[in-house]
Amino acid sequence: MLGVVAGVLLSAVVLTAAWWPRTEVTYRSSAPSAVVYADGSPHFLSLVHRYSLSGQQSYRMVVGRDPGASYGHWVDVDAALGASGIESATWTESGVRVRFPTGHELFVPARSFLYGR
Predict the structure, then answer these.
(1) CA 85 → CA 53, 90, 92, distances in Å?
(2) Can you list the pairs that 106-110 forms with residues at least 24 positions away whose Cβ atoms lie under 8 Å?
(3) Percent of residues, the chain, with pLDDT higher than 90
(4) CA–CA separation, 47 vs 62, rounded Å?
(5) CB atoms within 10 A of CB 77
(6) For residue 11, is it within any domain?
(7) Which long-range contacts (CB under 8 A, 24 or more apart) does 54-62 make?
(8) Coil, helix or strand for 105?
(9) Cα(32)–Cα(20) distance, rounded to whole angstroms?
(10) Tens digit of each residue's pLDDT (9 = 90 or more) over 30-66
C-alpha cells in the first residue's frame, strides 16, 4: 500500500514539474523620456520566452507599465520570430514598432497599452 501511495505521489510530482511553465525575458525596451503618453506613465516592452520541461515553447511580447512584464498588453509571437529575437523597438506617441532580424515588423498602437491595459 505504501508503495502505491509513493508511486502516485512521485507521478504527481513528475507531471507537475513537466508542465510547470517557466519564463525568461529575452529582450527589454523602455519608452524614452521624450515620448510622453496620455496616461503619464512610463512604458516597457519585453519579449518573454515561455517554456515547459515537456518541451513546449512559446514567445509573448508584453507592452505596458510593468517593467517586470507580468501585466500589460500581450501579443503572442510566432516561435520562429521569437527565437530570432528583437532587433529594435521604436517608440512614438502613436505606439511602438518592433523590428525582427528577419525583416518582419510588428506595430502595437498606444491605445492598446495605455491606462494599465
Answers:
(1) 21, 15, 21
(2) 106/61, 106/75, 106/77, 108/61, 108/63, 108/73, 108/75, 110/37, 110/38
(3) 70
(4) 6
(5) 22
(6) no
(7) 54/18, 54/19, 58/82, 59/26, 59/83, 61/98, 61/106, 61/108
(8) strand
(9) 35
(10) 999 999 999 999 999 999 999 877 788 999 999 999 9
Q: Residue 8 domain-assigned? A: no
Residue 74 lies in a domain: yes
Mean pLDDT for the chain overall: 89
pLDDT reported for residue 96: 98
Q: Is residue 10 part of a domain?
A: no
Domain count of the chain?
1
* Domain hosting residue 110, numbered range: 19-116
The grid coordinates of residue 50 equal 515561455
DSSP per-residue letters across 6-37: HHHHHHHHHHHHHH--EEEEEEEEE--TT---
